[in-house]
Structure formats: C-alpha cells, structure tokens
Design brief:
264 residues; mainly alpha; Endonuclease Iii, domain 2; Endonuclease III, domain 1; elongated
C-alpha cells in the first residue's frame, strides 16, 4: 500500500527533538567511525541539530520538477530512468511529453524502437536509454502484468536500472523511508561529516548503512531529508567552488571548518 506524503517536498517543519526519535544516532555514529569521522557521536548529533535548517532551506530553495508533484510509481520510475546521468532541467523539458507517449508499461512495450529513440534523443545516451526503456516495457508486461513491482530487486531487473532508481521509486512514490546514494549525496555527507567516501559510494554497503541510519523513519521526513541533500549538492555544495557562505548547515560542516581555518 502506498504511503501518502506531502508533495512536493514532504515535511519541512520539524524539531530537533522529533528528529532524534526518527534517526538511529548510535548506528549512524558506528558507521561514521568506519569512514574515519572524528568524534563521530558528537558529529552525528551536531548534524541532526542542523537538519531543521536544511529542511527550511529546501522549502524556500528546493527545485521544482513535475515528477516531484506525483506519487504515481510509474511516473516516478520513468522520471528516474530519464534522470540517469542527466540534469533535471533537461529532463523537465521532455518529461510531460514522455509520460503522455508512454502512460503505462503497456504503451512503452508496444512502442517502436524509433518512437522511444525520438522521445529521449535530446537527453543523450540514446542507445543506453532506449535499451533500458524497452526492457522496462517488456519485463513489466511479461513478469508483472503491467504493474510496477514493489520490491527493490524487481525494480532493478531492466538493464542499467540500479539501486538509486529503485530506491528513489520506493521513497518518492511509495513513501518507504530509505536512503539514496548519488554523487550529490555522497559529496554533501562526505564533506559535512568528514567521512572518507570510497571511489564508488553507490556500491558501498558501509555508505548505505550510514545513510540508512541517518534517514528519518517517518516517510514525510525521509522525503524532505533526501530531497534537501540532493538539492543542496546540486545548488550549493557543488563539486567545484561550493557556496559555503549560503549553506544552511555550514556551521556543522567539517569541510567548511577546515577551509575557513586554512584561509585565516
């Protein structure tokens, strides 16, 4: 059963006391220590105190995308495939057209190769995306009677659909609290906590264990927490020249503290 959440951002007004009941602080500290975080327990607790600031920032600055306005599993899943290795603004330009062309797995399964290529050609990686979408249509029709499966491993059956897309579908469409790991998420959490991110964080069980522990167990807050980290990484905590002065959690960020001290 789908857990309804507040669209588009989830719950953004919450107290530290409430968050402390929703986050597994001890497990997060244990996992943070594995990643070389100094004084991990205090660092995690300090980070939690700034999450309300982060969620308030999301309410004011969060990115507006069509797929954030729905909890339809098909529309969310389709968006996540289009978003692979692609900027959200580029996907926004074609998203409504793609949804109209392929309103369900049956329509996608019946589409020709050329129709699929035409729909997604502006995003690049056309061959990869075409193959993924073809497999989505075929597998969801043949194995799930046209329904969107409700298990991570089933959502990952089509070619090149990984944990991120599957987890994002469960989180944003079905309200299942779980963490997401992409480059934005890894960068923000790595910098804030001083966590030594591995080369491929999305393949690390330890990274998932840390982020699952940090993700609030309330579906509405899990949504806002994940979106806030994703948008912060895209808009503020960028790979090069992050805008630390406008960051709502810079006061608890190890990266910011170290760069600030270096500049003194």
């Amino acid at each position: 059963m789908t857990q309804q959440t507040s669209l588009p951002f989830g719950r953004t007004d919450i107290t530290v006391e409430e968050l402390e009941q929703l986050v597994d602080t001890e497990e997060a500290a244990t996992q943070a220590e594995k990643g070389g975080v100094n004084d991990a327990k205090n660092q995690i607790e300090d980070f939690i105190t700034y999450i309300p600031n982060l969620l308030n920032w999301l309410e004011e600055h969060g990115r507006s995308y069509s797929w954030r306005e729905t909890n339809d599993p098909w529309k969310v899943y389709l968006a996540e495939i289009l978003l692979q290795r692609t900027q959200g603004d580029a996907v926004e330009k074609i998203y409504s057209d793609v949804v109209q062309r392929f309103p369900d797995p049956k329509a996608l399964n019946q589409a020709s190769e050329e129709e699929i290529r035409e729909a997604v050609h502006s995003l690049g990686f056309v061959n990869h995306r075409q193959r993924t979408l073809e497999e989505v249509g075929r597998i969801f029709i043949q194995e799930f009677d046209g329904e969107i499966p409700d298990f991570i491993e089933d959502l990952k059956k089509p070619w090149r659909v990984g944990d991120y897309s599957a987890r994002a579908t469960q989180l944003f469409a079905r309200g299942k609290p779980m963490s997401l790991v992409d480059s934005n998420f890894a960068r923000v959490i790595g910098r804030v906590l001083g966590y030594e991110m591995p080369q491929q964080p999305h393949k690390s069980d330890d990274v998932y264990a840390l982020l699952d522990a940090l993700t609030p167990t309330d579906p509405d807050v899990a949504r806002s927490f994940n979106l806030a980290i994703l948008d912060l990484g895209a808009l503020v905590c960028t790979p090069n020249s992050p805008d630390c002065e406008s960051c709502p959690i810079s006061a608890t960020c190890q990266y910011y503290q170290s760069t600030k001290s270096e500049g003194q």
